[in-house]
Specification:
Radius of gyration: 44 Å
Strand content: under 5%
Shape: globular
Helix content: 55-70%
Number of helices: 73
Oligomer: single chain
Distance between the termini: 108 Å
Length: 1524
């Protein structure tokens, strides 16, 4: 074979050989080991390279497919493992520059023309070269090659190619950038690096970065990869620009260019020939020839902020502020908006404004965050150069307002925070365009506007110039403008900013602002108000502003200076006499054309001012005794019946009547304020001493009726409007919400004075306005706006709602009426007959309570009513064809109402309501459901009904139901209905929703029977009827007949099984208890025996039905367990220490079933472990099985069988560790029972398996599950109470166990990563052994072994969750030694302190302040720090043992703390602990520490000791003084 390849070189060069054959020969030569060609790899690579070079130089003609195969051949060589191995072994393979050049040329061709011919193979070749360091040297050695490659690659990407080539292209760009960055870092000539970046790479890299930032290539399926790669390439581009254009060596050049005006004619430095680097960068940036004009603008905008950031990163330091500023105007000049100052371009569209303003925002934030602008330095040293630039920018922004753009507001906010004087010359225009006249609707824009207004107010508060700001605000409001188009002046955001500002102002400035608004209203508005709609609108705006000032200023009190009180009182009187009353007079006598809008706005304004005045007057009177209201004293004589003159002195009652009539025309602010005035009047009336007089009560009822009646009409139509809670924004649209909010917020005042009809009306509105769907509730993403639904929902969920009994009762009646109406809409037969059978559905809402109260009043002297009537009616209806059928829409409607019912406290209902709701819910649950309802919807409906019935029956009035129906009747009604319903269900028996429904039904039936037992009401009768019914029902008769029908109702059989199981579960323990008390009659045990037989029959049918390949479901196992418990309980009276012959003949009812289930559980126990519920049921069954020895197999030991089955569970690697932890409590119960019945030999076998599992060879074989199962068995044994010989066996083996645990821990801690799943349980078991072996572990060596375990457990490089798991376990072991083995600890204090110091140092390390980390991580460390503090306290409690070591403990602490900066919370906890150790130190110890500690550590100790004396010692000594 060697001869075949001997002439391969000649054949490859021969013209006689076809290219097809040449490629085949070359391929086989590369892969064959029999080719003996010298330097074969280099020869083959050179042949392919020369062929391609000749082709591209037109010296050779090749077909296109041959060229492509040549590229693929080179690519295969470059990516082959063979080549990698050769290079790794030191062999040299030379790539010629000619190959690299044609690669660059092909990529350049691709970037220019977009031709994808062979480009995939070319890029793959390039990637192979760049990813192999030995080959990449061809690029890195000749720098211009990598620059050219990188430039063409970036231009290729900028063409935005599509398809598979994209991923390849970016991988190559990533590699090329990485190589170029390495070259750039080693570059010694800064001019060359600058020239390469600006001349070849700046433009394509900036375009590419912009496209990557916009997510151009993010693809579905590759999104995550693409995002990671995109981020890496963007970071590389930034690093490349920083290393090329902004090198530290270029700082002097930038200074010469940018600071030449300040420096004058200075000598040129070493960088003399490199002129104007910033101009060079900017010229390349703004050059329009390198990309499409539509893209160019976005690229420039995206790059300006980046270049400024890179410049600051490179050159910003103290003293360079002016240099860093000088770059800003130059870069700003690249933006299109900068040319608006000279009006060189036309107006921009909103999207362009958004893009460029975002850049301006970033530039300004960079200035602010880096403290580049110092006001004093700029004014004194630099002739306000920065200030003038910011002023021009501010003028640009204000002269071209862009209210729809959030960044516009944010730019103005930054300018305001830099210096308020930048914006102050244009303050009026700023207020107009950014607030008063701005049309802002979008949420993000509104938030930006609020932030600007807040900054504006806060700035002027700090300057104490708020009156000056108010002058400008008032000027803007009063300007001639289309007032009707303006938005409310004080929406939520501006109002909150103003409120916050007012609280920080001194009273004099608040009064100044108050007076300014008053003067403006008096001087400008009032004289021109008559018949002027525009002026009326201005009046309302000013009134809203005045309302906000008066409502949110700080209240006067008795400590307020007297001049301020007098001035406030004068202002209040002036406002009433000179503003409010004239406005009221004007409203009452318009004397002009009747304009509805004018009347509305003037009434809104005057009533807002009236309400504001009245409220503030009352507040001042209450808080300040030196303020004397014009209205007179708040407390005293009887209130007058006249409407409102007590609130506004001098206004007659007839005037208010006229105003009420006028405001009734409009759903607006005026009506809302009038309601507030009436509410204010009620409050003042209630403050009178005689508020319970007839006249006062009459007045209160009239006022409450007016408030409620005022908005009654507006609430008839449902509105989706939202209100921000500000008085000034109440309008016709939001008035219903504001009115409802007012009524609900003041229910505690109003409810006592409303008539029953009004209360029922309130309840009906409350029900009508509740959210009808989840989607309706979840629309609060734009702030905490108030809607009808939100208000009603808040009332419904309020804990005070049940306390308002009249409304609560009325609401319950409205809810029942609504439910009844939906049910009645589904009536199929004659409603008159149904009204006799189900009378509760036809009783009017206001008659419900009276009806049931009368019914209970007619009950006989024994308190028991004949119960047959209602039950028989329901039973007859259920057994026949229920006359109410609910379709899908009706069912959805009822589900919405049931959701409302579920929010009520059903367990606290009064007896009449309770009985009514029980019957109502029962009627719903047994209604016939139409064919349009899906099985899932029906199941959800029934589950909700029975959940609510169960919740109801847990209430205080639950027994009231048993006064109208027997439990057995309810049982029969419910199950008859459900058996019929389930026969039509199209749902699987193992569907999670069906299984959940079974649980709900089981719980409800169990509650009924438990209540029956509690009140001991006709037990034999009720249980007898229940068992009789279950024995006659269709599912049971089918089961008893033994028929296996195809169409058998499996769901019904499951339902029957649940019912029988619950019957056995309730009746079994009760009968057993009665037997023990010798109170049992023969009837109940017989009934129980019948129930057991019936349950067994059904279970046997279920077992037989699923015999082949059937896995035990949890419900089946639970039923068998319950049956067995009841069965064993039945025969427990025959068990005792002496068994009679009769007992030996006694048999359990279903032994074959129990034994079959036992065998199946043993086989399936590992599979059941995945489902906690099934496993719990299985373990419960096994526990009970031990109590029935007659069931035990004669050949096999039950103990051994169960133990081996449990071992399989614990040793199964498929079962996660968390599942094992979850099932441990159930296994503990089983083991307790096993150890009670097991022999000593059985226990010896368990111990043998434990010791085998702890053999260190298991760890060497990486059989972690064997080790873990042994550890878990020890934990289970330690949780069981055992004594005698078994206890002796265990504790004799304890030293061997401790030694084995020590070896296992040592081996585990040597693994990387450490298997914490093993280490954690080892520590748990070790702590438990040390605690429980306090009396029995006698050898100190075995206790000391615990120290070696603790010293090997890793506490560093752990994740927060792992750290939070391991640390407490280490602490528990250490604490167990300290608490339970003090003598051993006393002899090994150094070892103890070594272990404790590991805990301390790890907390100090983890508790250090970090750049990254979540709050949850800190919470974990805080918990661990508390444990360290606790351990310090226990050590301090043993002062005698640790006094000698206390100074060394303090030294260890301060030495470690000095290395880090701790979180304050962690430091506080550790200091509290170390203070207790300092208590043990005597004065020589302190002196020793001060002398011996290192200088840095000594300072930390001095600070610590100072705090100790100041905070801890002083407090401690203070406490001693009071100690006896």
């Amino acid at each position: 074979m060697a001869a075949i390849y001997s002439g391969i070189s000649l054949k490859l060069k021969s013209k006689a050989t076809s290219w097809e054959d040449k490629l085949k020969l070359a391929h086989f030569a590369w892969i064959s080991h029999q080719c003996v060609l010298p330097n074969k790899e280099q020869v083959l690579l050179d042949w392919a390279r020369q062929s391609l070079v000749a082709f591209y130089k037109k010296k050779l003609e090749l077909k296109e497919d041959i060229v492509e195969r040549l590229w693929i051949y080179i690519d295969n060589i470059l990516h082959s493992r063979k080549l990698q191995n050769l290079l790794k072994n030191g062999k040299t393979i030379n790539l010629q520059i000619s190959l690299v050049k044609i690669i660059n040329e092909r990529i350049a061709e691709f970037s220019l023309s977009g031709s994808q011919r062979n480009i995939s193979a070319v890029l793959s070749c390039c990637q192979g070269i760049l990813s192999t360091p030995a080959l990449a040297v061809i690029y890195t050695a000749k720098q211009e090659l990598i620059v050219a490659l990188l430039s063409q690659l970036c231009w290729s990407a900028c063409r935005q190619p599509e398809g598979a080539v994209v991923a390849q292209l970016f991988e190559v760009i990533h590699l090329a950038l990485g190589h170029y960055l390495l070259i750039q870092q080693q570059q010694v000539n800064p001019r060359r690096a600058f020239g390469e970046v600006t001349g070849h790479l700046l433009q394509p890299c900036l375009v590419l970065r912009h496209l990557l930032s916009g997510g151009t290539w993010t693809q579905a399926g590759q999104g995550q990869l693409r995002q990671v790669l995109s981020r890496d390439i963007r970071n590389q581009i930034e690093a490349m620009l920083r290393g090329g254009a902004f090198q530290p060596e270029l700082l002097s050049s930038y200074k010469e260019e940018l600071l030449e005006q300040q420096q004058g004619d200075t000598k040129m430095g070493a960088m003399k020939n490199l002129l104007a680097p910033m101009d060079t960068v900017i010229a390349r940036l703004v050059d329009t020839s390198y990309c499409d004009p539509s893209l160019h603008t976005a690229v420039v905008a995206n790059s300006v902020a980046l270049l400024y950031k890179l410049f600051l990163d490179s050159y910003f330091k103290e003293g360079n502020q002016l240099l860093c500023f000088q770059v800003l105007p130059k870069l700003f000049g690249c933006l299109r908006i900068s040319h608006l100052l000279e009006e060189q371009i036309k107006a921009l569209c909103t999207s362009d404004w958004t893009t460029e303003l975002l850049v301006v925002e970033q530039l300004l934030n960079s200035v602010a965050n880096n403290n580049i602008y110092n006001i004093a330095a700029d004014r004194i040293r630099h002739g306000e150069a920065q200030f003038h630039f910011y002023r021009r920018l501010a003028e640009l922004l204000i002269n071209h307002p862009q209210a729809p753009v959030p960044a516009w507001f944010r730019c103005l906010k930054v300018l305001m925070s830099l210096n308020h004087l930048i914006l102050e010359p244009d303050l009026d225009d700023l207020l107009a365009s950014a607030w008063i006249d701005a049309e802002v609707t979008e949420f993000r824009t509104r938030k930006a506007q609020e932030a600007l207004i807040n900054t504006l107010f806060q700035t002027y508060v700090k300057l104490r110039q708020v009156p000056r700001l108010f002058e400008e605000i008032l000027e803007v409001i009063c300007r001639p403008a289309a007032e009707a188009l303006r938005q409310p002046v004080l929406a939520t955001g501006p109002s909150a900013a103003l409120c916050e500002c007012l609280l920080e102002l001194p009273p004099s400035q608040v009064l100044d602002a108050w007076s300014l608004v008053l003067e403006k209203l008096q001087a400008l508005v009032l004289p021109s108000l008559r018949a002027d709609v525009d002026m009326a609108l201005k009046s309302l705006s000013l009134s809203s502003l005045l309302h906000c000032i008066m409502f949110h200023m700080r209240s006067l009190d008795n400590s307020t200076p007297l001049p301020v009180i007098r001035r406030t009182q004068c202002t209040m009187e002036r406002m009433l006499q000179e503003l409010v009353k004239p406005l009221l007079d004007l409203l009452l006598d318009p004397q002009g054309p009747d304009c509805e809008l004018w009347l509305q706005k003037v009434s809104d304004s005057v009533l807002l001012l009236s309400y504001t005045w009245a409220q503030v007057d009352t507040m001042l009177s209450l808080n300040c005794s030196q303020y004397h209201s014009v209205s007179g004293a708040l407390t005293g004589g009887a209130p007058e019946i006249s409407n409102l003159h007590s609130l506004l002195p001098g206004v007659e009652t007839r005037h208010w009547k006229k105003i009420e009539k006028l405001t009734a025309q409009f759903n607006s602010l005026g009506r809302y304020c009038l309601e507030q005035l009436y509410l204010q009047k009620m409050k003042r009336t209630l403050m009178q001493t005689s508020f319970q007089s007839e006249a006062a009560l009459h007045t209160l009822r009239c006022d409450a009726a007016y408030i409620l009646g005022s908005g009654r009409e507006s609430l008839t139509q449902r509105t989706a409007a939202s209100w921000d809670g500000q008085v000034g924004t109440v309008s016709a649209l939001t008035y219903p919400v504001a009115h409802w909010h007012l009524v609900m917020s003041n229910l505690s005042i109003l409810i006592s004075y409303l008539s029953p009809d009004d209360v029922r009306y309130l309840a009906s509105v409350l029900l009508r306005t509740l959210p009808t769907s989840r989607a309706q509730e979840g629309s609060a993403d734009e702030g905490p706006n108030i809607t009808l639904e939100n208000v009603s929902k808040a009332i419904l969920h309020s804990p005070l709602f049940p306390e308002i009994q009249s409304l609560h009762s009325a609401f319950l009646m409205c809810l029942t009426a609504r439910c009844s109406s939906v049910l009645c809409s589904g009536v199929l037969s004659d409603s008159s007959l149904l009204s006799q059978q189900l009378p509760w559905l036809f009783v009017k809402d206001h008659m419900v309570v009276a009806h049931w109260e009368n019914r209970f009043a007619n009950v006989g002297p024994e308190g028991v009513e004949p119960r047959g009537e209602i039950a028989q009616n329901l039973l007859s209806l259920v057994k026949s064809d229920f006359p109410i059928r609910l379709e899908g829409e009706q069912l959805e409607s009822i589900l919405g109402l049931l959701e409302v019912i579920s929010t009520l406290q059903l367990d606290n209902l009064l007896t009449p309501h309770h009985a009514y709701y029980f019957l109502l819910l029962l009627s719903m649950a047994i209604s016939k459901l139409g064919g349009s309802c899906s099985s899932s919807l029906i199941l959800k409906f029934l589950m909700t009904c029975y959940q609510l019935l169960g919740y109801l029956q847990r209430g205080k009035s639950a027994r009231s139901v048993l006064r109208i129906m027997y439990v057995s009747d309810i049982f029969e009604i419910v199950l008859t209905s459900l058996f019929k319903a389930t026969s039509r269900f199209l749902i699987d028996t193992d569907d999670p929703s069906w299984l959940e429904f079974l649980q709900v039904i089981g719980t409800f039936l169990e509650q009924l029977m438990q209540m029956l037992i509690q009140i001991k009401l006709s037990l034999v009768l009720n249980f007898g009827k229940i068992i009789a019914f279950l024995s006659k029902c269709k599912p049971y008769t089918e089961a008893a007949s033994g028929k296996q029908l195809e169409n058998q109702n499996r769901l019904g059989r499951q339902l029957l099984l649940v019912s029988l199981t619950k019957l056995c579960q309730v009746l079994g323990p009760f009968v057993k208890e009665r037997k023990q008390q010798h109170e049992a009659t023969e009837a109940l045990p017989e009934l129980l025996q019948q129930a057991i037989l019936q349950t067994g029959a059904v279970l046997q049918l279920c077992s037989a039905h699923g015999a082949q390949g059937w896995r035990l479901p949890s419900a089946f196992i639970s039923s068998v367990s319950t049956l067995m418990e009841a069965d064993v309980g039945q025969h427990s009276r025959h068990r005792g220490t002496e068994i009679s012959p009769l007992t030996d003949k006694m048999q359990l009812s279903h032994p074959a079933l129990y034994q079959s289930v036992y065998s199946q559980i043993l086989a399936e126990l590992p599979a059941l472990a995945g489902d906690t519920q099934s496993f719990q049921a299985a373990v419960q069954f096994l526990t009970l099985f031990f109590l029935a020895p007659e069931l035990h197999p004669k050949k096999d030991s039950v103990f051994i069988s169960v133990f081996h089955s449990v071992r399989k569970v614990l040793a199964d690697p498929a079962i996660p560790g968390q599942v094992i932890q979850d099932i441990e409590p159930y296994l503990g119960t089983l083991f307790t029972q096993m150890l009670e019945v097991g022999t000593t030999e059985d226990f010896r076998m368990v111990m043998q398996y434990i010791l085998q599992g702890l053999d260190v060879s298991n760890m060497w074989r990486a059989d972690l599950q064997a080790v873990l199962s042994a550890i878990t068995l020890i934990k289970l044994l330690l949780s069981c109470p055992f004594s005698g010989e078994k206890a002796s066996l265990f504790w004799r083996a304890c030293p061997q166990i401790v030694t084995a645990l020590t070896l296992q821990n040592r081996e585990a801690c040597q693994e990387q990563p450490v298997p914490l799943a093993v280490v954690g349980p080892i520590l748990d078991v070790l702590a438990a052994l040390l605690r429980q072996g306090e009396e029995t572990i006698s050898n100190p060596h075995h206790v000391s072994l615990a120290f070696s375990v603790l010293l090997t457990v890793p506490l560093d490089h752990l994740k927060p969750l792992e750290y939070g798991s391991i640390f407490p376990r280490v602490h528990n072991v250490l604490f167990s030694i300290l608490q339970c083995h003090p003598k051993v600890m006393l002899k090994a204090i150094p070892s103890f302190l070594n272990c404790f110091n590991r805990l301390l140092f790890s907390v100090i390390h983890e508790g250090r302040q970090k750049d990254k980390g979540s709050t949850d991580d800190l919470l974990v460390v805080l918990d661990c720090a508390r444990l360290v503090e606790r351990m310090y306290s226990h050590i301090a409690a043993r002062a005698e043992e640790f006094t000698v070591f206390s100074p060394f403990m303090v030294a260890q602490y301060v030495t470690e703390v000095q290395k880090v900066t701790l979180y304050p919370a962690v430091k506080s906890l550790l200091q509290e602990g170390i203070y207790l150790i300092l208590d043990l130190c005597i004065e020589p110890d302190v002196q020793f520490l001060r002398v011996s500690l290192q200088p840095g550590v000594r300072d930390v100790f001095k600070e610590l000791y100072s705090d100790y004396e100041k905070y801890h010692k002083a407090k401690h000594e203070g406490e001693k003084r009071y100690t006896v």
